[in-house]
Amino acid sequence: MALVKVASARGIAIPELLFWRQASTIPVILVILLTSGQMYKLRTSRLKSHAFRAVFSCIGMSSVFTAAILLSLPQASVLSFTSPFFAVLVTALILRDPVGPWRWIAVGIGFAGVLLIAQPGAEHLNPIGAVAGLTAALVVVIISYQVKDLARTDDAIACVFYLALFASLYLAVLMPFFATRHSAEDWLLLAAIGAAGLAGQYLMTVSLVHGAIATVLIMDYALLLWTTVLSVMLWDDWPHPATWLGAPLIIAAGTIITMREHRLSKQVSPVSTGIAD
Questions:
Q1: pLDDT value at position 127?
Q2: How far apart are CA 238 and CA 231, in angstroms?
Q3: What is the residue extent of each domain of the chain?
Q4: How far apart are the C-alpha atoms of 116 and 98, rounded to whole Å?
Q5: Residue 104 to residue 130: CA distance in whole angstroms
Q6: Which of 19, 52, 185, 249 could link 171 by a cystine bridge, Cβ 3.0 to 4.6 Å?
Q7: What average pLDDT does this structure show over 91-100?
């Protein structure tokens, strides 16, 4: 997020940032798999599912980048914490699974925190950036379910590779309209964005393979610490007081949801869920 903010300030457009973020990971993955004799890990019979997931990933990444550019890093990170709330809404409204009062109360508390941060009409928060941040949080939930499904049959590195491949193909259509000439510093910055993105995407995919979605999403709360540190170090930009008022509510609500999900998962037999210890 910090690298994207720096790149945008240097005049690099979001579509180009997205393209190089994905395209630069393809040769890296291929070289690693070729040299280690593990190309078989890319085997899949679900190319359509990977292509469909890449559509949502492009939407999600566009939203994340837009939020990072238009908002302060702490603001963007706190809005990303709303993913567990959207996970509850998806569970109840789309999957039609029962949701108890504790999780509904937590969702209410969480969105109250969002309103405290956003304070509709306040000048400290860009409204387009806020919408982008909330959109990104919703898309993260959708992608999490997609990754969980793909991981049943495909290796984690295959999920990362085919995301990069299909997303690059989609974004290549926009490159003639947004690509510009770059200095050596710009190319180093784009390479750094690709490397950080590859590492983050792989680690997130692996965590979703081995952990419950709600548990994985709550680990994002560490993001507030890192974005605050980077925001102060790079731009001397301290979080707005409204962020400190709303963030505890959002984090508390997410923690309630995660604890409730964990308790409910213990009540279900591993045999009945098809999951072995």
A1: 87
A2: 7
A3: 17-266
A4: 29
A5: 23
A6: 19
A7: 79
